[in-house]
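Notes for week 9. Today we move from apo structures to complexes. The key idea is that a small molecule is not decoration. When we ask for a structure prediction with zinc ion present, the ligand SMILES becomes part of the input, just like the chain. The input block below holds both the sequence and the ligand string. Read it once before you look at the output, and try to guess where the molecule might sit.
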Amino acid sequence: MASFSNQTKQELARLVPTKACCRMAELAALLRMEGLVVQEGGDMAFTVGTENAAVARKVYKLGKSLFDLEASFTVQRKRRLRKNNVYTLCIPRQPSLAGVLTVLGIGGLGERASRYQDLKRQCCRRAYLRGAFLGGGSLSSPRGGTYHLEMVTQDAAHAGLVQDLMTGFGLAPKTSQRKRRQVVYLKDSEQIADFLKIIGANNALLDFENVRVVKGMRNSINRLVNCETANLSKAVEAGMRQAESVRLIRDTIGLEGLPASLREVALLRLEYPEASLKELGEMLSTRISKSGVNHRLRRLEELAQELADKDSGRKD
Ligand SMILES: [Zn+2]
């Protein structure tokens, strides 16, 4: 089964922007992430290496539709550490190539740097980010332990551009250096979902959200259970403390002198320190509400406190 990352890229590769401005922005990003201008048999050629056939096809499609570029594919298995094939799209020297490179802001031989700046429109910014993800991005499956989306790019300037574009959409990406490459990444699941939405990866987003919802539900159930346990032990603690107060009153001034309403609650609390306020309220000869019980118990605690203060005053 294809990885979540690859699945997402396949979906994005099928998505071809209708507007030429966006196709241009996406191609510029793809070439900057993946492209390299090389010397080939005396000719200058542009190669785009990718592990994803769909991505190579997309570069081809965009180049063809925008500039009517001629290109050819080769498939290699040369990188030992990677199990996937590497698809190289060669765009050989042809009359329109120099113009294309200029338009896309790509310099000379061996250069990856594109200085494509036409990113004022929101639509093009989305397209550029989509190209950047297609070219150098990866995304861990939400089913795994951690959420992670990253884009690996060659130079700090480009990492800065990608980061700025993301920030413009309200995201807060971080960057780090990995060997000589720059990594722009997101770890927050909400932000990853937003990013998928921004670049138009709707199926991936749906899948991502489904997993996230199930996970989130599991977490909130756990939280709820913990919370209830905590509340329960808090209630029991309070009950014990109240019973202790009643005992103090009984042993110092006795319960007989208390108003009948207080005395009844006091006796019940002494007998049932673990009962909830609601249960105590129901046990009274005249049933009263939770807050009514609470009020009476508070008065008993205040009284106990006064007695304790007086007692310690006497001792001092
Ligand atoms: Zn556009």
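Residues 142 and 208 are 6 Å apart (CA to CA).
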